[in-house]
Amino acid sequence: MKKSSITLLVLSIFLLQCTTTTQNERISTDAYLDFSNRDDQFEGGIKMIPITTPKGKFKVWTKRVGNNPKMKVLLLHGGPGMTHELYSCFDGYFPAEGIEFIYYDQLGSYYSDQPEDQELWTIDRFVDEVDQVRAALGLNQDNFYLFGQSWGGMLAMEYALKHQDKLKGLIISNMMASLDEYEKYAKEVLGPQMPKEVFQEILRIEEEEDFDNPNYEALLMEHHYQYHVLRMPLDEWPEAVIRSLTHVNPNIYVYMQGHSEFGITAGATLKGWDRRADLKNISVPTLVIGAGHDTMDPKHMEWMATEVQDGKYLFCPDGSHLAQYDDQKVFFEGLIKFIKDVDSRGK
């Protein structure tokens, strides 16, 4: 065979391979975006899922983005009583990677039913709700990744301790395993970073339970939130974050968490929550995400990743409590790598 013929043959094979790869990628993208034959096509992925509780039946709001039979991520928002809107930035990263994800407002949150019976606001009932949502969405150990941030991270831990046989992967983001340790970190490490007179005034207001004092919120906004919740000037905070804060259900938040930003208010139902001793029972692949400027202690979260049986730690050095915004590249690169690494184990 002439040299020119061999060259043409090699070139033809190369071009064929490139064409095939491009076609496969296009088919994969088309499948990801295809809503046909889905029961949520009518509303573009939105589905109100019925759940059963000791106080009757209600509906919770969910929205699926994309299709992937092996990688489906259910997002648990913080609060309690916040909304899925905190995760709007996931739209900018997961679709490009072909990862299916589900926005979800827990019962009592803005887009879901909002019953007023306080007996509904317990950890066990929320865990049961998550499992009902999981079943309704067809999530199982072959595809189900559970992501939880802040209160959502607490709920994710609780879910894994009860139902980890349903999970493929677990992500605990910006949440410690002990609320007493969180309170200690806030008061001994974060608080003293403020001007002394500011921190003393905040503690005085909390001690007197004068939480309606407008100065309380103003001081926190100026000296705490824009350094440890979201490291951006307040007038630059993402619209979706502002929207979620506007939509928060204070009745749930105060009942479970309390008013204080430096721990759990006495009488709040989450007071004393501690799962440090139980982390060793979590065997599902787990990613723990911490951030250098978080309201939560990043060293504690690094330790958590060593306590679970199959853990990894992702540190966002420039991030705070909402690291998906203020250390976005590190956050999403690490999160996506974890999901794909876990998926590759099953091949």
UniProtKB/TrEMBL annotation:
<feature type="active site" description="Nucleophile">
    <location>
        <position position="150"/>
    </location>
</feature>
<dbReference type="GO" id="GO:0016020">
    <property type="term" value="C:membrane"/>
</dbReference>
<dbReference type="GO" id="GO:0006508">
    <property type="term" value="P:proteolysis"/>
</dbReference>
<comment type="similarity">
    <text>Belongs to the peptidase S33 family.</text>
</comment>
<dbReference type="GO" id="GO:0008233">
    <property type="term" value="F:peptidase activity"/>
</dbReference>
<protein>
    <submittedName>
        <fullName>Proline iminopeptidase</fullName>
    </submittedName>
</protein>
<dbReference type="InterPro" id="IPR002410">
    <property type="entry name" value="Peptidase_S33"/>
</dbReference>
<feature type="active site" description="Proton donor">
    <location>
        <position position="321"/>
    </location>
</feature>
<dbReference type="InterPro" id="IPR050266">
    <property type="entry name" value="AB_hydrolase_sf"/>
</dbReference>
<dbReference type="InterPro" id="IPR005945">
    <property type="entry name" value="Pro_imino_pep"/>
</dbReference>
<keyword id="KW-0378">Hydrolase</keyword>
<feature type="active site">
    <location>
        <position position="294"/>
    </location>
</feature>
<dbReference type="Pfam" id="PF00561">
    <property type="entry name" value="Abhydrolase_1"/>
</dbReference>
<dbReference type="InterPro" id="IPR029058">
    <property type="entry name" value="AB_hydrolase_fold"/>
</dbReference>
<dbReference type="InterPro" id="IPR000073">
    <property type="entry name" value="AB_hydrolase_1"/>
</dbReference>
<feature type="domain" description="AB hydrolase-1">
    <location>
        <begin position="73"/>
        <end position="327"/>
    </location>
</feature>
